[in-house]
Amino acid sequence: MARSKVELSSRYKTAPQVRTLLGLSRFAFDLRLSRGVFPQPTLVANGIRYFDDRWVKIAKLLLNIRDESE
Question: How far apart are CA 4 and CA 25, in angstroms?
């Protein structure tokens, strides 16, 4: 059974949400993904890239961004 968009959006962040968290433009974000600087998205469903909290934490470490929630 396919997952609904509501279920996915409650568990994962979309690319625009992650770009905002990381302070990156779409170009800079996509470039880092394509060059392998960032890991691949956690899940791709219907052409939408989804990222979990672990992925965001890794990306912040790679960009050397301090996580304010810690």
Answer: 28
3-state helix, strand, coil in the chain (%, to 5): 50, 15, 35
Contact present, 55 and 21 (Cβ < 8 Å) = no
Q: How many domains is the chain partitioned into structurally?
A: 1
Answer whether 0.70 is exceeded by the pTM.
yes
Instruction: Answer yes or no: is 55 within a domain.
Output: yes
Model confidence pLDDT, tens digit, residues 4-49: 678 888 899 999 999 999 999 999 999 999 999 999 999 998 899 9
- Domain residues for the domain of 42 are 5-63
12 close to 52: Cβ distance less than 8 angstroms: yes
